[in-house]
Amino acid sequence: MRAVQITRFGGPEVLDVVDLPDPVPGEGQQLYEVTAAGVNFADTHQVENSYLAPQELPLVPGAEFVGTPAGGGPRVVGLLAGGGYAEKVAASPRLTWPVPAGVSDEQALAVVLQGATAWHLLRTSAHLAPGESVVVVAGAGGVGSLAVQLAKRWGAGRVIATASSPAKRALAQELGADATVDPGLAEDDPKTFTAALREANGGHQVDVVLEMTGGNVFDGALSALAPFGRLAAYGMAGRTPPGAVQAPALMGTSRAVVGFWLAHCFSRPAMLDEAVTDLLGLVAEGALKPVSGGRYPLSAVREAHQDLRARRTSGKLALDPSR
Known about the structure:
Blueprint: E1 2-5, E2 16-19, E3 30-39, H1 41-48, E4 64-69, E5 76-79, E6 88-91, E7 96-98, H2 105-125, E8 133-136, H3 142-153, E9 158-162, H4 166-174, E10 179-181, H5 190-200, E11 206-211, H6 215-223, E12 225-233, H7 247-253, E13 256-259, H8 269-285, E14 292-297, H9 301-309, E15 316-320
Parallel strand pairs: 8-9, 8-11, 9-10, 11-12, 12-13, 14-15
Antiparallel strand pairs: 1-2, 3-4, 3-6, 3-15, 4-5, 5-7
Helix pairs in contact: 2-3, 2-8, 5-6
């Protein structure tokens, strides 16, 4: 089969399209023929070995796929520990879900990992309550574009999205954001970013922040929180860690910081079932609109990673193994 393999860590240049033996399903696994593979920002960390979990070479990246069981069967979307950038994958049927008619491969890929992350950030980590204000950092991205819509659907009083270009800020507003902020304001001084977030919230501190950049964006967003506000951190796209968070400072402001990594739901599949089933149903109804960021040939995987790292994309990126 054709697959993307890395044999050395680095940037997009280490992604090579090669011929590999078909994967051999382990106990409790099944072989699937892949029609589309999802690309996530976390994959760029995996490729350079800066991911939360240490990586071992050689490896085939990719944590999600849409496909059918080898030999025939219904179309499913599934999650993987790795190996998704390929024509075939070995996956546990317990971590696959039927794709409803009318839901495209790209839409299904958008909700299975990034959508489930947005769902649990708001429900499980931040415990969003109706009427609360929500800041979605990277509101035009794969997780952010769905989090904006879910926050509005679940009764957020005001949704503020950050995005790095006028086009992305316009997209976030089309998806339901009440206001937008340029995260570039945080580059020189996080206090400027803090002030912009409060201004976007009518001069008030904010209740919930979904944060995936790190560095000054994290610092500025944390300072914008109201008492009893919650910042849920789920990424560090900027590759720069934020300032240290001290317990006395949290106690003195009654703020909370919580981390989230969807991988911990793999051992609690009921948590994934609840989120993915809900999200696929909303997409099928037309109540949730995933944003497609482009379908790249497998042979153009380096370009996909380059575009993602350069923030030239919005929404969900997918790879087509047939090309």
